[in-house]
């Protein structure tokens, strides 16, 4: 069953086609969700919400756009919406971030970080960021969205978006330093 | 500058690492997704879009189906399409209106036909304690209700017979007089003290009943017997056999009796 057949089946609300599409993009989309969430449980929640939205709105997909890109975009939108709903996390996490910013000392250099970097500790460092910083970092650095688009998506100003990105980068670096330090101590 | 370039390098490495990151998770958890999809309500079988489209298409075909030869004037050609549109719209709107009215009456009838809770006939047995209530206080209303119940069916049943046959009424009169005497004997023993109260209650209840009172007056026009026994127990029977004048006399008699007797 190729992609166009799967899409046709999904348009008819066929369960087999839906399952095929879900299994085809499961790992790729879960990886995206893990970047936007604080843990794997939240990531799976976002993934389910995202695929639900995909199946509900697949009729809006145009054939000119690759299906994978369209699904990815839908999943990212769902992730942003999901994080918007959990605004209470923002206040707590922002407080932690500012506290962390004040007590920062560059104990480990960037070279050391680069040498000991791997997929797992980068993801963990990213997940430890506040939802607001995580969102801006993902949208700006990984997806390559402009600050204008990000500010439109998050209902904030461009300045806030830029400032959040700077803080997100700073905190991510700090989180990486801490994780490397912990692994060295072991 | 060196520090800044190192930061950029680090950012780039982080970016590449995260972009290429792909989780290895074989448990796709499709069952959960399927259960979530099963919660979607099925879409309405009636497709409004398609229906409107077909309606529009049918409107397009209307001028084609009418041959111009059959139409005499150009004005009619001009107005035939709007006329069909108006007819079509009026059918649709009329259908909605009919549906709305039917639905409204359905709902209103549903609300009207809500079964009312059955009212139980509670009969309280009041203890006959003369020290608390007195001798007549409790028993009198029950007797009044009994007499009313007796009056109404008899009025209805005697209605036709009294009008048609005078001979029959004489015979009946004799039978009734006998019955009256028997009842008199029976009730004298039981209701010696309650008689005045019963008289008043019977009279008032009868004439306050606006529906029954005229019937009584009309029915009793034929009979003219004034010599009836003065007894409350036979009041219903008396009412059947007297006209309005005799009834007035009867009431005056009762009134005089009540004036004579202090209780």
Cα-based radius of gyration of chain A, to the nearest Å: 19 Å
CATH architecture of the largest domain in chain A: Orthogonal Bundle
Largest interface: A-B, 35 and 27 residues
User: What oligomeric state do these chains adopt?
Assistant: heterodimer
Biggest beta sheet attributes of chain B: none
Average pLDDT confidence of chain B is: 64
Percent helix among the residues of chain B?
Answer: over 70%
**In percent terms, what proportion of residues of chain A is strand?**
under 5%
Total helices of chain B: the number is 11
Order of helices and strands of chain B: HHHHHHHHHHH
Structural class of chain B: mainly alpha
DSSP strand count of chain B: 0
**Number of alpha- plus pi-helical segments of chain A:** 10
Tell me the series of helices and strands of chain A, N- to C-terminal. Answer: HHHHHHHHHH
Distance between the termini of chain B: 126 Å
Key words describing this protein structure:
heterodimer; A: 186 residues; mainly alpha; Arc Repressor Mutant, subunit A; 10 helices; globular; B: 263 residues; 2 domains; 11 helices; 70% helix
Could you give the topology of this structure?
The complex is a heterodimer of chains A (186) and B (263).
Chain A: H1 3-11, H2 15-36, H3 40-56, H4 67-85, H5 88-102, H6 110-115, H7 119-127, H8 131-142, H9 147-154, H10 158-185
Helix pairs in contact in A: 1-2, 2-3, 2-4, 3-4, 7-10, 8-10, 9-10
Chain B: H1 2-19, H2 30-38, H3 48-65, H4 74-112, H5 130-133, H6 139-164, H7 166-190, H8 195-208, H9 212-219, H10 235-241, H11 244-260
Helix pairs in contact in B: 6-8, 6-9
Describe this structure in words.
The complex is a heterodimer of chains A (186) and B (263). Chain A is mostly helical and 186 residues long. Chain A folds into two domains: 3-85, Rna Polymerase Sigma Factor, Chain: A; 88-185, Arc Repressor Mutant, subunit A, CATH 1.10.10.10. Helix content of chain A is 78%, strand content 0%. Chain A contains ten helices and no strands. In chain A, α2 (15-36) packs across α3. The longest helix of chain A has 28 residues, at 158-185. Mean pLDDT of chain A is 84; it is low at 88-105. Chain B folds into two domains: 51-110; 136-260, no CATH class. In chain B, 70% of the residues lie in helices and 0% in strands. Chain B contains eleven helices and no strands. Chain B has helices at 2-19, 30-38, 48-65, 74-112, 130-133, 139-164, 166-190, 195-208, 212-219, 235-241, 244-260. The radius of gyration of chain B is 46 Å and the shape is elongated. Chain B starts with a helix and ends with a helix. The interface between A and B is medium-sized, with 35 and 27 residues.
